[in-house]
Amino acid sequence: MAKLFIPNDLTRSQLDAFRSIEMELNKIASGGSVTTGSGVPTLTSNLQDGSLYYDYTNLNLYAFNGINWNLATTQLHTRYATSVTSPNQSGKVALASNVLGFSTQPFDAEGDQLLWRGIWWGSAIASINPVDYVWTYTSGAGAVSVNIYSSNGNIFRNDTGTTLLRADVDIGGSLQTDLQHNGFEFKWTLGINVICVDSSGNIASDGMGNIYTDTVGLTCQARSASLHRADSNDSTASLNFRQMNLSADDIDNAKTIRCEVSNIP
């Protein structure tokens, strides 16, 4: 595999683009090195025939023929999209319909950055088929955060009241829809153990501040057939457990409840 030498003076967007095209450069290099720089290449010593040089300022690719550098017949084309579903490990999709909002521009009409970038090495005229491109998230767009929303704050006054706890998943600065949340898997824990809830999503406890959890010695189902693990993978329940209800009777002084979210694309 050819090695891609990345200069240390790149901007974040340039570096992000390099990570996306590194695999493609290695595919077309014929045993020589792959180097990068700004402008037309000048170095010719100690180079093998088939070496590549990528001009990251003008987006030009040069191939070395053993004597001289020549502008390669293949050119780099970049496209953007609002959504890409089911890309394989190489970043390719099987169907054009897997790519929505296929665009030549990185921002939409409101000035928001599109979440996906596609690259394609080809002829001077760019392909209009999204299947030809290798798709990756744009810089920072894939960041995932999970926030726990509480409908009644995080403090119970006078040991009374209830609150709804809901896990909200944010990807690339965008809160996911309820339909998208339905595809995620949730697991609520207290310490290292999964919390027990009833079929309505109410947290189970002894009513004196001790929340029931699923342990090796005593599972939720062993406590009561009406209880389930607050886990999307619990086969005894039909809920996805994005949310559950907490009562003041479930808390003594304080409790730290965590939510793990998986199956996020």
Average pLDDT score? 82
How far is the first residue's CA from the last residue's CA? 29 Å
* Helix-and-strand structural type: mainly beta
How does the major sheet shape up?
Answer: 5 strands, antiparallel
Query: Which of globular, elongated, flat, extended, rod-shaped describes the shape?
Result: elongated
**Number of structurally distinct domains:** 3
What is Rg? 26 Å
Strand content: 25-35%
Q: Supply the number of helical segments.
A: 3
Task: List segments where confidence is low: pLDDT < 50 over at least 5 consecutive residues.
Answer: none
Short synopsis of the structure:
This protein is mainly beta and 265 residues long.
SSE map:
Blueprint (H helix, E strand, L loop, with lengths): L11 H17 L5 E4 L14 E4 L4 E5 L4 E3 L3 E7 L1 E2 L14 E2 L15 E7 L11 E4 L6 E7 L11 E10 L2 E2 L2 H4 L3 E6 L2 E5 L15 E2 L5 H4 L4 E2 L13 E5 L9 E6 L3
Parallel strand pairs: 1-2
Antiparallel strand pairs: 2-3, 3-4, 5-8, 6-7, 8-9, 10-11, 11-12, 11-17, 13-14, 13-18, 14-15, 14-16
Describe the structure.
By secondary structure, this protein is mostly beta strands. It folds into three domains: 12-72, no CATH class; 76-137, no CATH class; 144-262, no CATH class. It is built from three helices and 18 strands. Strands 13, 14, 15, 16 and 18 form a five-stranded antiparallel beta sheet that branches. The two termini are 29 Å apart.
